Amino acid sequence: MITMKDIIMEGHPTLRQVAEPVDFPLSPELKERAQEMLTFLINSQDDEIAEQYGLRAGVGLAAPQINLNKQLFAVHIPDFDEDGNEIEPLLSTILFNPKIKSHSVQKIALKEGEGCLSVDREVPGLVPRPKKIRLEYQDIDGQKHELRLRDYEAIVCQHELDHLKGIMFYDHIDPLQPWVAKEDTELL
């Protein structure tokens, strides 16, 4: 089981490396580790389990964050009904060798900024990213898939994809005007 002690923090050299492509078929160890990454996200969003194991809630986890220099990440983005009850997740999967095939010109940013399981501090500022992306990836069996994502789901996947390129979210923040949105940037 992955816990916070398995997640490396900013400053660790692996977080600044470009991750290596994943070869198929997967080794049993890599398959298990990938499943553990998704399980960590699901557990981190469960209040009881998160408290028991001291987990910080997360919606995405990239392999480099657990010191595994491979092109894969897991996402678990919950969805809620109008009464606040959790329903089928918006996106819950593991993506191997993901690549953005196209993206919109229009940008979007979370109005409160982004956070990261590998960053144990507040980093103020907007992180502008394309509002829509078309993402190609392989599943756990090596089959190719395509996702068309927008808004929050697109932001989460781009954040995790950055980890595979050695990029941290705060690299995108304008150091002189961290909270100023450019004209083409919508705030979510």
Defining traits:
Peptide Deformylase; 20% helix; 188 residues; globular
Task: Note down, in words, how this protein is organized.
Strands 1-2-3-6-7 form a 5-stranded antiparallel β-sheet. The protein has a 3-stranded mixed β-sheet with strand order 5-4-8, with helices on one face. With 188 residues, the protein is an alpha+beta fold. The chain has 3 helices and 8 strands, in the order H-H-E-E-E-E-E-E-E-H-E. The protein starts with 27 loop residues before the first helix and ends with a strand. Strand 2 and strand 3 form a beta hairpin. It has a single domain (4-187), classed as Peptide Deformylase (Alpha-Beta Complex). The radius of gyration is 16 Å and the shape is globular.
CATH class: Alpha Beta
Class computed from helices, strands and strand pairing: alpha+beta
Residue-averaged pLDDT: 97
How far is it from the N-terminal to the C-terminal residue, by CA?
33 Å
How much helical structure, as a percent, in the residues? 10-25%
Give the beta-strand count: 8
| Overall tally of domains | 1
Give the low-pLDDT segments.
none
CATH fold-level assignment: Peptide Deformylase
Question: Which word captures the global form?
Answer: globular
Strand order of the largest sheet: 1-2-3-6-7
CA radius of gyration:
16 Å
Biggest sheet statistics: 5 strands, antiparallel
* Number of H/I helices: 3
